[in-house]
Description:
By secondary structure, the chain is an alpha+beta fold.
Amino acid sequence: MRNVLRAVNTLLVFAALGAAGAAWWFIGRAAPKVSGSIQAPVSSPLTIDRDAIGLPHITAASVEDALFAQGFVTAQDRLWQMDMLRRLAAGDLSEVVGPSALESDQLSRKMRLRATAELQARSLPPADQTLLAAYARGVNHYIDQHEGKWGPEFAILGYRPRHWTPADTLLAALQMDRTLTNSWETDLLKARMIAAGDSAKVRRLFPTRDGGEIIPGSNAWALAGAHTASGQPILAGDPHLPFSMPSAWHLVHLRAPDLNVIGATLPGIPFVLIGHNEHIAWSITSLQFDTMDLYAEKMDLRSGRYAFQGQILEARRETELIAVKGAVRSETLNLVTRHGPIFTAHAGAHYALRWAAAEPLPYRFPLLPLARARDWQAFRAALSEYHGPGINLIFAARNGDIGHQVAGRLPRRFGFLGDLPLDGHTGQYEWDGLIPFDELPSSLNPARGLLASANQNPFRDDTRYTVSGFFAPPLRQRQIAARLESRSGGWQPQEMLRIQTDVYSAYTHYLARIALAALAARQPEDSWVPDARALLDGWNGQMHKDLAAPVLVDLLDRQIRRRLGESAAPEAGADYRFETAPAAVEALLRERPAGWFEDWDQMIVESLADAFAEAGRRQGDRSDRWRWGRSNQITIAHPVLSRLPLAGAWFNVGPLALSGSSTTVKQTTPRLGPSMRFVADLSNWDNSLINLPTGNSGHFTSGHYKDQWDEYVAGRAFKLEFDKIEPKNTLRLVPEL
């Protein structure tokens, strides 16, 4: 019997090894070829050198060949991610994943992203069309030459990727635009709360332009050479986005005649969005300007007729058929008014969505002029043709200049904010076109030798048009500036990483202090009070994963927000969710206006009691053992491979406790965080630094699937090789015979 059991166990071991080997072959067969030669439709031979982190350094004889190669290597590393991105934007997810994605597809179809991208592609100048077509040819060459080996995701979901088009690139850009500017839901929430409560109170909970907002966002700054050890500027940037597997960004280096640029771009978009060339460096933060307005239309849905300025107009009808895997096709009917598509309904009204990105205007793709810019003037000239979402750009040049420029399609409003649904029939709330580039905020070489953007409001108080948006406060920007001004000079590039990983929260530190003051004022004798006081007393505002105080203060914040919401709108206040809520909360706590609560200190004590009880339910009765990291824990899961039985966890990172919060320079929540860390040393480009959360490849067996994770968690980064490249692998693309 013992021999039989031994034989059975041996067979089981071999079966398990065989299954693991088969799985490894199945997954690994799609790993990209990174050495040797491949024939391709290029004009001259080109090389793709991959360095220690898998970053492809492309050297080509022409810009078109370089873009062909960029499309090819991006498809090598991220084809499935690219395909999902365009499907998400176009509303085609249901075709491959089934009915679970139908609601998402219907939303994308209503927003008409595919139609907008196709219109933009047709309006591009011929030179831009040529560049996007070269990139698409590179993607498609990879698709055609790797039949059935595109990646395990395609095999698991059972479909073949379609060819890439220039419109798909613009779709990818529009999806990022939607991610950064989606504000219509907040407009409706605010309207519902006003209808159910006290209008004046509700407006206090939704500040529009007081500079006190705190929202998840990005950081970028530039130090003039007077403050650095080298005497040349240093630039740093860490855009914050939802965590994803693979990473949101793809790193690449492009070299061709009059082109030498390196950095990060979104998979599906050619050139570089954040990075440097031989002369300048730049990084980006989201502007948070409001580019969407809802218009309540007086219309008959059956006929499609609606009123505008005393006239009866007829909406354009568009029927959208959505393919649904394993189900009957779904049909969506769009009615498109002069303001945009009928998007949603509320309280008997039908709302059309006007979005700056969808305005029928000529479109430009200025990333080549940006990549070639040598100075501030050329940099601004390139950005004047930029038509994407509103962004702040921080700039530094080897001639010593540092600058800040706002760019993007921003509606010009006069006399109204657009923070609530507008009457669509009167004509009183129409945009006066878009804000001209020369009227957007711009700054060059400030006297203090420092420029920092952390999503704060960059517009002057005397701006002649109405400024509306969800601007972050000066709090993060001030914390960055305070760190940089803590000494007179001598800054090194590596030291920028310590600022990017700063986890001090001025907002939650303030909440802790006012909670202690309320306890002192009301002197409650409940059993929880000594433990709560012990946690808060002496806490320095650091949102560190190993501390207990952040657990309590975070829940206190939620309790106070709920009470404020219910005071303003008793029937709808529980729905109060606003990215900039901390601004309203802090302003109200400092001012304590009449009519909200009989006793503000008592409200704070009751909120603290509820927060303490909730923390106990979540983390146990011993408050000294609470840890912020158990509340602020992330898992970055692959959307398909993580679902594989037994082996799914291999394709994820985490779970891991992280320091930081939504109100710290290092903004880390279970949903989002720094999507990249970039530091440019303008004295020596090879001292520049880069780090992605996971890796540059989407292929598990590539060696670069999550090879940057440990450095990311530790707050370190890799050298961004530019002049001195140490290739680990070299692939040549040679002209087809």
